[in-house]
Specification:
By secondary structure, the chain is mostly helical. Helix content is 62%, strand content 0%.
């Protein structure tokens, strides 16, 4: 019977699973999980029985299982993927106070896409425990958050920054788009993590809104926010961001400088000589590195002269960057 569980014929698998359940094998497996904890052999058998469509004893045992077995059965219910487990999982989520159990219940609900539990999942975005919030984000992404935009908009005003950040993650997964307007006010949120997540959401959506609202975040006190603002500008473009990008590069870290190079490539529409005219008379070392990257990616005159002028710089990083920038030119132009 155990071998027949993996038969290619679904009817053979179902009959085998039914026979095993009637023989009490499912209850024996669950008792073993209660006694010994996780056992891959028993868990695999229960999974195969559940996937064969025989789930009554397995699902009914979830609320009564002792110890870690209850969590294992919840995870199995999600892996089986049968929506019949939905009402049980929803009730357990609403009554349990164990954050570890709750996060597993939320994950399982997301896997079976049980929409009736969506209100409870929305409430989990405010949960004080990080794992539960993360599970809620994933579950809503699986269920589809579009029907709940009004509820999500209200949660964006929640006093907890963890809740506001979690809602941003959910909105970033809305397939229909159009959520950038909801998260734009969070660009000035008092919590830096929320500001960064709002920028990530806008970048993921391919947002093309008011660049003027993102540009100030290039000078945010938080390094994470500065980095995400550069990435958002890379996705959005906008010529008015060119000068601020050059200014933001003055003391930029290497990750930020790379993001600023992408943003500059997206925002600057003119020639390299026009870009160079916007640069300060005495650029910092970091700004020079940004301009070298721009020379490699850009167009128009003055590019090669600028790169060659830094091939013998006393700064080893500038020399290396200038040499690497030559990749943006035709071989005939740089052979010498």
């Amino acid at each position: 019977l155990l071998v027949a569980l993996e038969d290619e014929d679904p009817e053979v698998s179902r009959r085998s699973a039914t026979a095993l359940e009637r023989m009490g094998y499912v209850r024996e497996c669950i008792a073993s999980l209660e006694r010994d904890g996780f056992r891959p052999d028993w868990s695999k058998v229960l999974l195969l029985i559940g996937k064969a469509g025989v789930t009554e004893v397995l699902f009914d045992s979830i609320p009564r299982a002792r110890g870690t077995a209850s969590k294992l059965l919840v995870r199995l219910a999600g892996d089986i993927g049968n929506p019949a487990a939905g009402p049980i999982l929803k009730e357990l989520l609403e009554t349990s106070t164990d954050p570890s159990f709750r996060s597993r219940a939320v994950e399982a609900i997301g896997k079976i896409r049980y929409r009736e539990a969506a209100p409870a999942i929305l409430g989990c975005l405010r949960d004080p425990h990080d794992w539960t919030r993360r599970a809620a984000v994933g579950a809503l992404a699986a269920i589809g958050p579009s029907p709940y935009l009004d509820e999500l908009a209200l949660l964006l005003k929640d006093p907890s920054p963890h809740a506001r950040k979690a809602v941003c993650k959910v909105l970033g997964g809305v397939e229909t788009g159009g959520t950038a307007g909801l998260v734009e006010p969070l660009l000035t949120d008092p919590d830096s993590g929320v500001r960064a997540e709002a920028l990530r959401t806008m970048a993921r959506e391919g947002w093309h809104g008011a660049v003027s609202k993102v540009v100030p975040r290039l000078f945010d006190p938080s390094g994470e926010v500065r980095l995400e603002s550069a990435r958002a500008l890379s996705a959005a473009g906008g010529t008015e961001a060119v000068l601020p990008i050059l200014r933001a590069a003055a003391q930029a870290s290497e990750p930020l400088r790379r993001a600023l190079a992408d943003a500059l490539s997206s925002c600057h529409r003119g020639t390299f000589s026009e870009l160079l005219a916007l640069a300060p008379d005495r650029p910092t070392g970091e700004q020079i590195l940004l301009l070298l990257e721009a020379a490699s990616r850009g167009s128009g005159g003055g590019r090669l002269e600028f790169v060659v002028g830094h091939l013998h710089s006393p700064d080893p990083l500038q020399r290396r960057s200038a040499l690497f920038a030559l990749r943006g030119f035709e071989i005939e132009d740089v052979r010498e």
